């Protein structure tokens, strides 16, 4: 056998025949480590124990009381065993240090602070708080204006246009209501004329003495019913167009006007708050409130200016669209009424063709598929 080279005892890990680590050399390694440390520093005895292969923990450091010469403890000195434990902790090893009577300074590893997740309940609570504060300010502003104590921002030109629009909407609604009444009455009259024409036609067949007289009246009533249906189609088209103008186009513009008025109230409410804060004392407590109020006032001022611009644009386009729509519909209504009461059937039909109106005769049934073929 060749002579083995000398090796450090700390590097030798003897293993028994059953695969377990021999603990006989661990005591020698701990003894050498204890003698290698300088005496008199009040250090604790360090013992490194290696467990078997079946153990789940590795590199466990156990600290016990040092049996050497006593020395006064130095709290500000980091013990080598703690430094070793800190390094082992950074490498992912488990560190077990029992509490002893000696005070030592410890160092913690790097700490990573994760961002706190936002709580949905807190966010909703904050939204409710802002909404309540804004509602309170706006309600106070409205009450102050109604009592004559608060001031309000007024755009004279824009307010006049809005008042005219609301007044015109009421008048157009009245015209729409009357036109619907006329359509209902005309429908009943046409239905009556059609029934009367059928009655005259039946009597003309059964009464030989008055055959021609009943026949003339039957033809007249049927012609009136046909012209009445044509006029009814023109009136219904007029009603549908005016209804779209009043209940959709004008209503959409008035919704924008309501948003503009809400923005105006918010703007005046925050303007009043800022004026009250500026009139008060300026110190370390009021300056942050003034800055915050100035920021909110500027945000609501921008919103108010934007809504005022939107209302002005919508009013301009509404006026152009209203003139175009009502011009065509009024011409249609006039020509249809005039042709009907003049008895000019061709002019009445020409009027409907001019505005691309297709009539659906209620008295004529839909042809079957055999008739279509």
From TrEMBL:
Keyword set, alphabetical order: Coiled coil, Golgi apparatus, Membrane, Phosphoprotein
InterPro entries: AH/BAR_dom_sf, AH_dom, Arfaptin_fam
Sections of the chain in a coiled coil: 155-182, 290-321
Chief location bin: Golgi
Species for this entry: Lipotes vexillifer
Region Disordered: start-end pairs: 1-33
AH domain span: 153-353
Signal peptide: none
GO biological process terms, semicolon-separated: intracellular protein transport; regulation of Arp2/3 complex-mediated actin nucleation
GO-annotated cellular components: cytosol; trans-Golgi network membrane
Localization of this protein: Golgi apparatus, trans-Golgi network membrane
Compositional bias ranges of the Basic and acidic residues kind: 22-33
Protein name as catalogued: Arfaptin-1 isoform X2
GO MF annotation terms: phosphatidylinositol-4-phosphate binding; protein domain specific binding
